[in-house]
């Protein structure tokens, strides 16, 4: 396009005039908006790459933003001390808003919401998202917190966790005609030191039968003190059993034959409870920052290593499958299928993982606790697990029980070929009393899954040389199973063979295992009797959907041979099960209808046909649910039954109860059962009650109680460790269970409740926390709330004239409109609106006529003149109000602070 030569000169002159005139010709700020233009304090959700610090005060102007108090914000983000020292001064200055980079909810563009971290560690970039009320921070990479577990071998427990007594209890009651069973069990932990706790496990049983009296039994299964040393070793003293030896708390000791019974004494050993399993096999960390959910492709040159689908925030890539070596990894970030940027990072991986070099051991000794009160002999056990090479380990164990020594040697290994995986183990046992044992197990997993298990045990009980409750048994066992997908269902084959050898009876005809005296002479091999049982079964199951119904079908055949004293028994048969269920969901309830048909035909029995018809209805609310169910069933042999059930979970626990009535040609009977579970934690902050069972740590949540007593409903949503969300009410205290020695996350979010008069947002520190807690610890999570009451109406004087342009003194808000209309947001429920129109001071009672969601409609309100000295002190003491009163020459009428105190 051709341009006239004079056009350039004219354009230059026009631009010069515009620049010169800009400061002079700029239009003044509209009346009533001067304070907004000068800047105001807003409460924004401060986030660092998806990690929220909660809602904090931020001074916002049209040009920039500034944190009012950056130190607690950085503490809530769990940044290092060095990061806090450098970033706090930077956030104390006004920073460019960069609002144009925020993502729009309607149509977000690829790459929006992201600022490249600055090279200067002393600067911070921000993006102010006005539509969402969010302030996103972008510091230098070196200050970014870790996305997940620390990049070291062991996790660190949270320093601010508190010691507490955490206990879970379960009560069971069942009964019927002539009998009653009552049982209670519980387990608890008490944190006593920083790295120590007391564990207890108890149970109580009461059995009562008509004509046989009753029996009570109370016992402690475990009662010990445990102290963890340097996150790698532990010492445990008290009463304990073998359970912790086959878990991360005590090691991976999978002894299958070595006698390791309950005892009272001490145990020392290594622990893997603090081991960061997620870091096993990782190389140098690769971190990618995402402002939105995205796909990340990792390349070594032109070779694609792996594709990740990640959520927004700080993400550490899982490099377990990356090849060993040192090379540059290129990360290509795609949003909505569009490549937005590419990042290169150096990567190094040695190829040696932590668990390949981990040696585990334990030693324990004390007094044996036996089923026979006459035996209280000493016991000493020890174990050592060593890796021989990657994916191959050897375990050696020895035990001296009741003056008899045993030893077990075990090899475990696994091998993977692509998607095929083989796992196998072999163990051998020897004892001074002539005990011998062999155990082998092998499994294969691909599309087809198969397992074979064999054990042969010849313990001291086989010869009778050492007959006591701790003597090893005498048995042979073989089992095999195969499972494979077929035509949309699953095909299963299973085979078991077991031979149990038992000894005859003594002269007094009392079995030795019931408390009879040991025999005088050794038993002869001929006294040993074997009982053989074999089972072979095959089944096919499939579940399909048709319209709104789920159809589950299962067909199978079996053959069984069982040896018995009166002679062997054989049984062969087939069975068929068909169940149809339909689920109907509404916003408040869920209903399930089900119908089932069963057919079974054995070798010596007539075909047995049965039916089942049932319905279940469930109601859910914020912190629990209630479920009612009923079912009737019948069989071709004239047996009929009907049952009803109730399940409920609330703030006080989980309860389940059922009543069933059975009737046949000969008799009828009614049975009932009920179960209640709950938990609690008691610590420095008081008592917290929970409804879940089975956890040694927890999160103690306490929601702020509002000053407005009329405020009811749900205030916050809490989710711990990915479990079902909990909607908590104002002022509620709740214990949420947390798995011990496991890295989990506790999230707090706003909740939208239409029955609440105010808009509620989570305030204060941290809406999310990464937690790693040993037993006996609780994490206090106080939930502070930011309340906003929105009033809409119009103000008029006593003559009905609209108070046009009046200023609101309760809070810094725009002036009233031409019709006196106002939209006022307050952090508390205001009863009176205070206005200043020219030199007139007015008070307007706010009476809510209608509530729509979180908006309070007050309509047209009549205002009365107010003397300056009647203005409430909390409003009068504001610098903004004092300035406005002085401008209208009303400041002289205000009493002094000393005078007001004297009046009070």
From TrEMBL:
The keyword NAD does not apply. Keywords: Signal. Residues 1-26 form the signal peptide. Residues 359-760 form the TcfC Usher-like barrel domain. The keyword Signal applies. Residues 630-649 are annotated as: Disordered. Residues 774-864 form the Pilus assembly protein C-terminal domain. InterPro entries: Pilus_assem_C, Pilus_assem_E-set-like_dom, Usher_TcfC. Coiled coil: none annotated. Residues 634-647 have a biased composition (Polar residues). It comes from the Bacteria. Residues 284-349 form the Pilus assembly protein E-set like domain. This is TcfC E-set like domain-containing protein. It comes from Stenotrophomonas nematodicola. The lineage of its organism: Bacteria, Pseudomonadati, Pseudomonadota, Gammaproteobacteria, Lysobacterales.
């Amino acid at each position: 396009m051709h341009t006239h030569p004079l056009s350039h000169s004219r354009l230059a002159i026009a631009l010069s005039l515009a620049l010169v005139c800009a400061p002079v010709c700029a239009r003044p700020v509209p009346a009533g908006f001067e304070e907004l233009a000068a800047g105001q304090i807003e409460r924004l959700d401060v986030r660092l790459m998806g990690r929220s610090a909660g809602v904090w005060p931020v001074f916002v102007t049209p040009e920039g933003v500034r944190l009012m108090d950056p130190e607690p914000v950085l503490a809530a983000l769990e940044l290092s001390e060095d990061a806090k020292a450098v970033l706090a001064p930077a956030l104390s200055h006004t920073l460019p808003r960069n609002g144009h980079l925020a993502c729009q909810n309607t149509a977000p563009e690829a790459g929006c919401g992201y600022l490249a971290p600055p090279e200067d560690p002393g600067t911070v970039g921000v993006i102010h998202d006005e539509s969402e009320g969010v302030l996103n921070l972008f510091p230098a990479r070196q200050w970014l917190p870790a996305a997940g577990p620390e990049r070291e071998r062991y996790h660190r427990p949270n320093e601010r966790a508190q010691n507490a007594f955490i206990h879970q209890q379960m009560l069971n009651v069942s009964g019927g005609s002539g009998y009653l069973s009552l049982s209670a069990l519980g387990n608890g932990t008490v944190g006593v030191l920083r790295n120590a706790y007391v564990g207890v496990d108890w149970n109580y049983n009461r059995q009562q039968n008509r004509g046989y009296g009753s029996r009570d039994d109370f016992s402690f299964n475990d009662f010990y003190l445990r102290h963890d040393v340097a996150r790698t070793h532990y010492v445990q003293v008290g009463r304990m059993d073998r359970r912790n030896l086959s878990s991360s708390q005590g090691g991976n000791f999978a002894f299958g034959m070595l006698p390791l019974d309950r005892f009272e004494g001490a145990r020392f050993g290594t622990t893997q409870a603090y081991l960061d399993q997620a870091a096993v096999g990782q190389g140098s960390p690769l971190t990618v920052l995402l402002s939105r959910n995205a796909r990340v492709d990792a390349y070594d040159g032109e070779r694609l290593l792996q594709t990740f689908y990640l959520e927004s925030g700080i993400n550490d890539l899982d490099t377990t499958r990356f090849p060993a070596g040192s090379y540059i990894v290129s990360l290509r970030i795609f949003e909505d299928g569009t490549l937005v940027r590419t990042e290169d990072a150096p990567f190094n991986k040695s190829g040696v993982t932590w668990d390949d070099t981990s040696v585990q051991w334990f030693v324990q000794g004390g007094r044996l606790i036996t089923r026979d009160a006459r035996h209280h002999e000493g016991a000493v056990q020890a174990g050592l697990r060593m890796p021989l090479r990657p994916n191959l380990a050897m375990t050696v164990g020895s035990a001296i029980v009741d003056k008899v020594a045993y030893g077990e040697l075990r090899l475990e290994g696994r091998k993977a070929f692509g998607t095929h995986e083989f796992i196998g183990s072999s163990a051998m046992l020897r004892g001074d009393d002539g005990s011998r044992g062999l155990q082998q197990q092998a499994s294969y997993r691909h599309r087809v899954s198969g397992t074979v298990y064999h054990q042969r045990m010849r313990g001291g009980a086989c010869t009778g040389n050492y007959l006591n409750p701790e003597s090893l048994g005498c048995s042979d066992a073989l089992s095999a199973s195969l499972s494979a997908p077929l035509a949309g269902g699953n095909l299963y084959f299973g085979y078991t063979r077991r031979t149990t050898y038992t000894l005859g009876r003594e002269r007094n005809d009392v079995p030795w295992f019931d408390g009879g005296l040991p025999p005088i002479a050794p038993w002869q091999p001929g006294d040993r009797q074997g009982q053989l049982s074999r089972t072979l079964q095959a089944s096919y199951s499939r579940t399909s959907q048709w319209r709104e119904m789920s159809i589950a079908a299962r067909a199978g055949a079996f053959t069984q041979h069982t040896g018995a004293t009166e002679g062997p028994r054989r049984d062969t048969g087939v069975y068929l099960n068909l169940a149809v269920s339909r689920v109907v969901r509404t916003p408040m309830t869920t209903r399930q209808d089900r119908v089932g048909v069963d057919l079974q035909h054995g070798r010596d029995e007539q075909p047995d046909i049965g039916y089942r018809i049932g319905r279940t209805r469930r109601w859910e609310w914020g912190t629990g649910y209630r479920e009612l169910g009923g079912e009737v069933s019948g069989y071709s042999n004239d047996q009929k039954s009907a049952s009803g059930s109730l399940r409920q979970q609330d703030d006080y626990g989980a309860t389940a109860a059922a009543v069933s009535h059975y009737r046949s040609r000969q008799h009828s009977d009614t049975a009932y059962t009920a179960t209640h579970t709950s938990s609690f934690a008691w610590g420095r902050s008081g008592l917290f009650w929970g409804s879940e069972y089975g956890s040694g740590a927890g999160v103690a949540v306490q929601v702020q109680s509002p000053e407005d007593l009329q405020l009811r409903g749900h205030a916050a949503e809490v989710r711990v460790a990915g479990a079902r969300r909990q909607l908590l009410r104002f002022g509620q205290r709740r214990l949420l269970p947390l798995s011990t020695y496991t890295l989990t996350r506790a999230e707090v979010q706003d909740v939208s409740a239409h029955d609440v008069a105010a808009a509620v947002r989570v305030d204060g520190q941290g809406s999310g926390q990464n937690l790693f807690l040993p037993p006996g610890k609780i994490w206090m999570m106080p939930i502070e709330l930011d309340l906003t009451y929105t009033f809409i109406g119009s103000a008029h004087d006593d003559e009905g004239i609209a108070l046009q342009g009046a200023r609101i003194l309760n809070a810094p808000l725009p002036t009233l409109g031409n019709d006196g209309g106002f939209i006022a947001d307050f952090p508390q429920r205001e009863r009176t609106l205070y206005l200043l129109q020219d030199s007139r001071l007015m008070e307007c009672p706010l009476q809510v006529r209608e509530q729509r969601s979180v908006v309070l409609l007050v309509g047209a309100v009549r205002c009365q003149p107010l003397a300056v000295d009647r203005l409430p002190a909390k409003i009068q003491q504001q610098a903004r109000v004092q300035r406005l009163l002085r401008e209208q020459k009303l400041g002289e009428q205000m009493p002094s602070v000393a005078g007001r105190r004297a009046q009070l």
